[in-house]
Amino acid sequence: MKRSGLISATAALSVLAAACGSTTGGTAPTGGKAPAQITVGTLYSSSGSFATSSMPEYAGLKFWVKQENAKGGAYVGAFHKRIPLKLVALNDQSNPETAATLYSQLITQDKVNILVADFGSVLTAPAVTIAQEHHQLLFDVSGSGTTFFSASNPYVVLTSLPTSGVWPTPLVKFLVSKKIKRVAMIYDSNDFDASQAATIRKGLAAQHITPVFDQAVPTSTTSYTTLINNIAATNPQAVLELGYPNNDIAFLQALGSMGRHFPLTFTAFPGQLHALLESNVGAANLSYVYSYGFPPQLAYNSPNAGLGTAAFVKQFGATTTGPVNFLDIAGYNAGVVVGAALRHATSLSQLSLKQALVSQSGKLQTIEGSFKIQSDGAQIGERLPVSQMFPSSNGTTIKLVYPSSSANASARYPAP
Amino acid sequence: MRLEYALLAGVLYGMFYALAAVGLNLVFGVLRVVNLAHGDWIVLGSFLAWELYSTFHLNVLFSAVVALPLGMAAGFILYWVLAPRLGRSEDPEMTSFVLFFGISQIIEALATFGFGNNQRSLLPNALVAAPLRLGGQVYPGVLVASAVASVPLLLALYLYLYRSHAGAATRAVMANPAEAAAVGINVRKISALTFGIGTAAAVAAGAFSIFVEGGTSPSQGVALTTVAFAVIVIGSLGNVAGTVLGGLVYGIADQMTATFASSWANLVPYLILILVMLARPSGLLGRATRDA
Description:
The structure holds 2 protein chains of 2 kinds. Chain A is of the alpha/beta class. Chain A is 39% helix and 17% strand. The longest helix of chain A is centred in the first third of the chain and has 20 residues, at 51-70. Chain B has a single domain (2-118, 142-279), classed as ABC transporter involved in vitamin B12 uptake, BtuC, CATH 1.10.3470. Chain B is 74% helix and 2% strand. Chain B has a two-stranded antiparallel ribbon. In chain B, helix 1 (2-31) packs parallel to helix 5, helix 1 (2-31) runs antiparallel to helix 10 and helix 2 (38-56) runs antiparallel to helix 3 (60-88). The N and C termini of chain B lie far apart (52 Å).
């Protein structure tokens, strides 16, 4: 034998492995020996424009890992036992190119069993294709861009929010319910915001309403003075600004410094990062601004997996200095969904993990409500209500104002 | 009315951009290095303004004044630490490129340690609360104040360069360091002074940047360096008046694009930069030179 025989045997084994769907991701053979640990790989941004949002998500995920390890690890159904979790986290510094390199590193070098994306669509986008190429299931925490999900890619699942295209559905209904005809819309030219804008445009068109102002701006936009002036010239009843937190802050700052006032002003992030927005733009500028409604304002206290809202706020809140925000919850929720996949999968193969989540769709209730996904991995189980910031003794308070099924206050329209 | 508004807003932004860029231009003119940490000094100026207002309720104008000696001192120290090492380098320009990139990263990391990742901003009453109403239009008071405050700072720099002995020596070094040294000018001293002034101008600009840029964060430095670089290239390297013109062109182009093709706002100022480079490689106010 024999060198040629050895080569032939190796080649045959390689072909067999390929035929069995061998991947470069960290998988374990079905029915094999249980691994000593489950490696969870993720990225975070400790600096750069997404650090504000990325770090809370990372903190939430770390909290879940710590909680599971305190119980002996995550329960892995394929081996009928708990297995300790090892978290491998790399810093992409808010840079999509760096993120692409690091996602590949997590898959090919660290050989993670579980791959969790960084915050948002911009930093998730590189992971979607890389994960698909390597047949590694991507747990997408908050990259809700609609283009990430397609029938041809079974290797992505959105754990937290519905795809961004779904977000504004209640908002459009709210605008229509208020008989608002003159809508101005300014949005960042990225998939996350553009898909929201597309939904709003379509929803308004169904009501024969055409926005009086409808413009995209670069995501890096920080000067809104001229844009606000142009919006004001159209005399809108509602102004919708769709961006990231830095955009929202700059927009609301500019609005305040110009002394401009619209009957309805909506921005996306006050509902997620209320404390950050209020500390930057002030309670006066934030008062009566509308936003989406997110947990913890939207409370789910009876989940069948993980902690409920009140318990999480209490336990996680004890580990952090600032108020608990939605992104903390999103990171924790990603962990809960990972836990559900590990619990119900018949093996640690990536498609088995995905299949486990498909089987749990509609059954799994988490801190973010019903986990319900389509076959392409897009989340559809949650709806984001409309919230409004009301002045209070210590700044502003978020109240849910639409739809009535989840409302805990009446909307003030037009804003005083 | 949209055109007029964009024009005037562009002028206001442009004056700020000129102040933000002038230090980079001075340093390039004298030392022949692109200070990649320039934007990070602006960020530090923003954090200085934020800290002084948040802690002591000091108006941002005061911060801009305080920034001048602080920035000057920081620039001096940095120059005396770096210059001898750069002088010993076989390729000082490339070494400085790498060095200032490293300094940029260090400043960003230190700012993150000190202030965290989150965006920080100040309410308008930290500078000027009331907006300016002009011809039926409304301009943010903070933007107007930032532009107006830039004028005396830029004027002072101009007077320094064209009405003082040190300024004349600085211009001589800009024109030809070897010849300047030959006529008895202490090039190192002038270089140190220029680096200090350039840093001071950047830190002072930072006090206004927190309003003009809608807030500040440790990672904002690179974007500000890029804008400053575009401004000085459009205007002309080593020329204060050129920097003002470059700032105005950049500001007006930026606001015009925001008005008429907002999704292209990131692109158009840089298209103008390329066009200027093609038409006048030495910048709008640059002079053609001929080596004998």
